[in-house]
Design brief:
13-stranded mixed sheet; 4 helices; binds 2-acetamido-2-deoxy-beta-D-glucopyranose; 2 domains; 355 residues; two-stranded parallel sheet; Leucine-rich repeat, LRR (right-handed beta-alpha superhelix); alpha/beta
Length: 355
């Protein structure tokens, strides 16, 4: 406290230069109100950060936890960089009072779980990175207080499960990076409130199935990146339900099981004017000879076998029906003939008995 009171004086004295050290490890740039404390072996937050600081760089230190209200003396922060520390716990209310904070970088830490409480008071935050942590489950409402969030980076975690309404209250989101995680299924409802989402990056997961309705809430989606997943087939309806103006869809690097059905799905998708399958010509078939570079784009033969089968069945049925009709006709004629002869025979018998 004593130091904070002295600080304005210190700033005055130093106003001729543009920067000074407020501890031996941090450099303060007066004009841009930026405190640079990167790579300084801090294990705890430095106590003497000037209250006027708007940008605080604490990246690549050894911080391990952020306690409640940890930044209450620096309430003017707009940018806070905590990437490259060892943070494993974020207390509820850790960022309380940072009502001006717009960018928070928590990437490259050891965060394994998030509760909604961590985001208390971060109503102005526009950009949050939690990339390169150890998250495995995104709980419901874990971003509940982030009313202005535009960009969310969750790439390089171990996310396997996204609970319903995990992004429930962040309808302002424009971009989500979920690449390099362990997601296997996209369940209905997980993207339910994201009507402003423009970019959904799901590269490098293990997604093998998408629920039919999972994409339908994404009415602003411009880019859906499903590159390098485990998709072998898809349903037409899943993508048709994307009610957007125009959406680019990336599907390369999946083990497509190319058969007539899949080809039909893709042919129909290509005909939907608002959908653009940008890498359609490079989709590889896992079940066909790759040596020949067999890709979905230029094949026309997948349905030939099916057409032949249909043709054979049709012809067989036709022949059977014709044969049955012919047989029936023959039988009928035979019966008539027999009947005729019986009558003739009976008539001649009657003649004889008459005489
Ligand atoms: C997300 O984080 C990853 C890993 O730190 C980084 O490589 C990537 O550029 C980030 N993406 C965006 C869009 O910021």
């Amino acid at each position: 406290m004593h130091l904070l009171l002295v600080l304005p004086f210190v700033l005055e004295v130093q106003s001729r230069s543009t920067s000074h050290n407020f501890t031996s490890d941090c450099l303060y740039h007066v004009e841009i109100k930026a405190a640079n404390c990167t790579s300084s072996n801090f294990t705890h937050l430095p106590v003497s950060v000037p209250p006027s600081t708007e940008q605080l760089d604490l990246s690549f230190n050894h911080l391990s936890a952020i306690r409640p209200r940890a930044f209450q003396t620096t309430r003017r922060l707009r940018v806070l960089l905590l990437n490259g520390n060892s943070i494993s716990a974020l207390a509820d209310g850790a960022f309380l009072f940072l009502e001006n904070l717009q960018r928070l970088d928590l990437s490259r830490n050891r965060i394994s779980s998030l509760s909604g409480g961590f985001s208390l008071g971060l109503g102005s935050l526009r950009e949050l990175s939690l990339a390169e942590n150890k998250l495995s489950v995104m709980e419901s409402d874990c971003f509940v207080h982030l009313d202005s969030l535009h960009k969310l980076n969750l790439s390089h975690n171990a996310i396997k499960t996204i609970k319903m309404r995990a992004f429930g209250s962040t309808s302002t989101l424009r971009q989500i990076q979920l690449d390099w995680n362990n997601i296997t299924v996209l369940n209905n409802g997980i993207f339910s409130m994201l009507r402003n989402l423009e970019v959904l990056n799901l590269r490098h997961n293990q997604i093998h199935a998408l629920d039919v309705g999972v994409l339908s809430p994404l009415t602003s989606l411009a880019l859906l990146d499903l590159t390098n997943n485990n998709l072998s087939s898809i349903q037409f309806k899943t993508f048709l339900s994307l009610n957007t103006y125009s959406t680019h869809i990336m599907l390369q690097g999946n083990p497509w099981k190319c058969d007539c059905d899949l080809q039909r799905v893709f042919r129909k998708l290509c005909n939907v004017k608002r959908l653009f399958l940008d890498d359609y010509d490079s989709l590889n078939c896992s079940n066909l000879d790759e040596i020949h570079g067999y890709s979905m784009g230029f094949d026309t033969e997948l349905c030939v076998a099916e057409m032949v089968t249909v043709l054979v069945i049709t012809i067989t049925v036709f022949i059977t029906v014709v044969a049955a009709i012919v047989m029936a006709e023959k039988k009928r004629k035979k019966k008539i003939k027999e009947k005729h002869w019986t009558e003739v025979r009976e008539a001649s018998k009657a003649d004889r008995s008459y005489y």
